[in-house]
Amino acid sequence: MKKDIQIRKAAEADLDQIEKLYEDICDHLETHTNYPKWKKGNYPARCDAEKGVMANALYIALLGDKTVGSVILKHEPEEGYRNVKWLTEDDYSRIYVIYTLAVHPGFLNCGVGTELLMFAEQTAREERCMSIRLDVVKGNLPAERLYQKCGYQLVGTVSLGYEEYGIPWYNLYEKLL
Predict the structure, then answer these.
(1) Fewest 10 Å CB contacts: which of 79, 143, 147, 152?
(2) Would residue 150 count as lying in a domain?
(3) How confident is the model at residue 2 (pLDDT cuts 50, 70, 90)?
């Protein structure tokens, strides 16, 4: 891992910075291609970070004292995950699912996303997990390129029930550990 990026479990005291991270990302997406279809005040929002902290599942990436990224790691799949043939068996006690991988727009292409994925993999290996799964809005090319570069394999495309938000299809990825 890069020596200057520190990743640690988020605490309640970090919520203001995480909320600001989400808002900065959504502001950026309003003036650039919004590949993930995130919307300020809708998703991701402070309540998502609060749930992540309460579940002991939210991690933040810090550069000095600035929050430059975050990720949620859980052993719980989205409902639509059962509609695809995965590379491994469906025992989620040994499978991590990545949610809300976020990188501050001022730190895009600086390795923050890669560091968060490497951290997730290291954490999963320490817990003897067999794989990591994630979903990405179909057509979110920057994210898909990152996941593919880091060894994640596309296993299928499904609906996750977000059609009302204009997001009918998600690509599902898995990486064997």
Answers:
(1) 79
(2) no
(3) low
